[in-house]
Amino acid sequence: MTHEAERKVQVQVWDLPTRLFHWALVLLVIVSFIAAKKGPMSLHQLAGLSILALLLFRLVWGFVGGTHARFADFVKGPRAALAYLRELLRGGHPLSIGHNPLGGLMVLALLAALLIHATLGLFGNDDIAFEAPLSKFVSKSTSDAARAWHSLLFKGLLALVLMHIGAALFYLVVKKDNLIRPMITGWKALPESLAGHQAKMGHPLLALAILALAALAVWGLLLL
Questions:
Q1: Of 60, 88, 101, 151, which sits 20 to 30 A from 204 (CA to CA)?
Q2: Residue 211, H or E segment
């Protein structure tokens, strides 16, 4: 019996901290973009620092969070991603409980791009009235370069985001696999043969403690 022919059951895949991280990051990226274009820059900076705190949280959560939030669960390497892509291009639909190998690489790319982008923003300035928290520790030319790369990298980041959204829509429309709903509810419809796996959910209080420490670390940058 193929996976497609099997009866589907609901399986809990994503823990609450992972889901809140995802949607909070989406919201903050939108706020950051709008504030960069329309102002005020203080809001752009606040959104950027909040993004940085969330990213620090996610890096730690990737080792201590729920089963499918952990890097060990979805980072399979280029070979597994290429094998998955070949199967997909042949019309197949290899199922994964959490992120598939290709999606895992996309997650890493997004996290890395956001982390570099947010870090560069810490050193920039706008040549008028705004100076980022760490710009005073570097030369004006270095700060200008950081600002230029911060702006340039956003275009690459936007491309990754559009690819991410496009992939979700591809699975929804073509493969009839809704990857968006599970990131809202935490539950995913899976064939019975895959549903016997019991995922561990990350504890919300542990997530809150990690996020608080990450926020304190980022807030400390403002006091330097």
A1: 101
A2: helix 204-221
CB 25 within 8 A of CB 117: no
Domains along the chain? 17-170+204-221 (1.20.950)
The whole-angstrom separation of Cα 59 and Cα 64 is 9
The tokens for 24 are: 């909070």
Q: What are phi and psi of 42, to 5 degrees?
A: -65, -35
Candidates 208, 173, 190, 218; CA nearest to 65 is 208
The answer on pLDDT for 130 being more than 60 is yes
pLDDT score for 129: 65
Per-residue pLDDT tens digits for 80-124: 999 999 998 888 888 888 899 999 999 999 999 999 999 999 998
The count of other CB atoms within 10 Å of the CB of residue 3 is 14
User: In this structure, are strands 187-191 and 8-12 parallel, antiparallel, or unpaired?
Assistant: antiparallel
Note whether 210 and 55 are within 8 A (CB): no
When pLDDT is cut at 50, 70 and 90, the band that residue 166 belongs to is: very high
Half-sphere CA count of 121, side-chain side, radius 13 A: 24
> Residue 54: which pLDDT band, with cuts at 50, 70 and 90?
very high
pLDDT of residue 204: 95
Q: Which two tokens stand for residue 113?
A: 């791009």
- 52: closest CA among 118, 7, 103? 118
Q: Which two tokens stand for residue 91?
A: 């019309």
